Amino acid sequence: MVTVKDVVDALAQCKDPELGADIVSIGLIQGISISSEGDVKVKLTMTSPMCPVTSIIMADAQLRLQSIQGVKKVDIDLSWDPLWDPEMMSDEIKYRN
Q1: Is residue 92 in some structural domain?
Q2: For position 75, which CATH number holds?
Q3: How far apart (Å, rounded) are the C-alpha atoms in residues 73 and 21?
Q4: How many whole angstroms from its chain centre is CA 29?
Q5: Is residue 85 part of a domain?
Q6: How many CA atoms lie within 13 A of 72 on its CB side?
Q7: Which residues contact 93 (CB under 8 A, 6 or more apart)?
Q8: 75 pairs with which residues across the strands?
Q9: Fewer CB atoms inside 10 A, N or C side of the chain?
């Protein structure tokens, strides 16, 4: 059975090439759902609608999620509601020097 932890761990391996931090810590993940059949749906956003690395991040996330044992189907929904805000970042990222 695929768990939310499995999904978060996989997504934590996806790095934003501009910021050099993972998309979980940046606060791009807005929701995760997993069906009993192993279908994974992730709602995520980008730091800006004009983000030049959106396709890179989405492709990386797709590949990492598909590699989780037990995942049958992956659906990544790019959302702008709510818009990303720096307050969504983890404290570790916000306060690093």
Answers
A1: no
A2: 3.30.300.130
A3: 26
A4: 5
A5: no
A6: 7
A7: 21, 25, 26
A8: 41
A9: C
- Residue 18 DSSP one-character state: T
Each residue's pLDDT tens digit, 36-63: 999 999 999 999 999 999 999 999 999 9
Rg (CA), the chain: 13
User: Which CA distances in Å does 49 have to 28, 55, 83, 84?
Assistant: 12, 12, 9, 9
Contact 44, 30 (CB under 8 A): yes
DSSP characters over 59-73: HHHHHHHHTSTT--E
Cβ(34)–Cβ(3) under 8 Å? yes
Model pLDDT, residue 94: 81
For 58, the domain range is 4-80
86: closest CA among 76, 96, 72?
A: 96
